[in-house]
Write a structure and sequence with these properties.
Elements lengths: L2 H9 L13 H26 L4 H14 L1 H10 L3 H16 L8 H4 L9 H7 L7 E4 L3 E4 H13 L8 H18 L1 H4 L6 H17 L25
Helix pairs in contact: 1-11, 2-9, 3-9, 4-5, 7-8
Length: 236
Amino acid sequence: MNKLLVTLLFFSCLLSSEDINDPFEDINRLTFQFNESLDRIVAKPTANFYSKFPTPVKKGVTNIFDNLEEINTSVNQVLQGKPLTALNDISRFVINSTIGLYGIFDVATAFGLKRHEEDFGQTLAIWGAPAGPYVMLPVLGPHTLRDLFGRPVSSFLSVTFHMTESDVNLGLNMIDALETRERLLEVESLLSGDKYYFVRDSYIQYLDYEIKDGLNIEDNLSLIHISEPTRPRLIS
């Protein structure tokens, strides 16, 4: 069972649904149903096709997109007052972009440089900004109001944002979405109950985990191994 799967299943059980700020649930559910339809028609069949690719190829794709996020992570580490971690992350980007052949190979981890994930939404949380209500966006999926404000900054800090060829940028984002969707295929077979609540609750809990760097819940994970889980970029 992969780390993302374990993470989602664990986080979905931590909060009861009434603890989450979801004043727009009726609208969110309609949007969720639209995303589900789009996923059923387009994203899932494509992800199933992609899942047949050799594992080394898929691992290389994952590594490339992880590497593209290192600049965003490094800048936000500085904004959060963690310069040494920022140095670690920018070093990862340099090493993997060169020795790792544009990020295909995660050489930096082999050198002992641990990977982190930060974005401007997490930085706003560290600065004291409240999460605000939960919102489900068409195509883009689950967010909080704070994440919506942080998204443009993180997009600007991403490597793909500054690519001058719009078709290349679009293609990379489509591949990124496909890679993420493929990693979620295994989760679906274990879902039960209300899928809307599962996606919402696991997303909110995962945000809390990332903001706190896992420090406040690690004691609860003694029976579950989670090592640097990947933040889910859920389609629906």
